[in-house]
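USER: Write out one fold?

ASSISTANT:
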Amino acid sequence: MEAVVRVVDSGRFILGPEVEGLEAAIAAYCGTRYAVGCASGTDALYLALRAAGVQPGDKVVTTPFTFFATAGAISRAGAVPVFVDIDPRTFNLNPELVAPALRSAGSARAVIPVHLYGGSADMDPILAAARAHGSAVIEDAAQAIGAEYKGRRCGGLGDIGCISFFPSKNLGGLGEGGMVTTGDLSLRNMAALLRVHGSRDKYRHELIGVNSRLDAMQAAALLVKLRHLDAWTARRQENAAIYRECLAGRTPFALPSPAPYQTRHVFNQFVIRSPRRDPLRDYLAKKGIGSEVYYPIPLHLQPCYAGLGYREGDFPESERAAREALALPIHQALTRDEIETVSQAILEFHG
């Protein structure tokens, strides 16, 4: 509240010192030199694509098992998403399929790996494939602030990273907000220019940009919350461990298990897989236990992408995940007793 009142008293509500302070703090946290605040994680993806030189008609390789914004930003930039199936263990891009997709696409301008649910994609082979084809790598780290790949922070692994501060994220704001992270000054400058209508000098527009400025109120609140993020992450990790303790070997489904390269999984979601996902969800709801399906329709089967020509069966792992994935409560305020209650209900359901 003190931070919010400070902004109100200042009368500076858009960009300004609060935003600059958050940009510096997030860049340091993600291990990058620069960060650019914007209006949402979706806008961060769009700004990153534009900054990376993606033009209308270009192809961009990404996953069909993610929130719509990943592909929607590609389309908004006038480019065409090229989907690649996922690794069933991590729900992220299968790195073995990226190079063949880049070859078949001809010349894809960029690759967007998503660090889904708070665990990093397998970045080394993705980066190698992209470099071999001259493609930029844009990390969708909307759910993965603080996550690490082989000891390095997500958002600082590719050419440019994208973070969301939507309230449900590990570092959530008081509304919408996003951030672009990069170690490249030219990419930083381009993203900063594009977020203010392509104008460096007032009323003089070098590019056709957008209005995507981060509110000072959001930045002030996020700067306060950032001080607590590591403690909150530790609680999420502890909660995941309690779930594994309660459920391991006692259910017909596998529990989330970070891959060796996911050296810091931040558990934005704790996602189990069950062939009886929908009946299980209904059973939990009757017990007063919330859950969520992320995501029930893979992007290649969305009505708006029917024109791309994909069909059911094209990406079997993504389609199976869409049928089986169920996110359980994982937030840092959960108690052990509450996690045991959820676990007991799951065990009861499976008899």
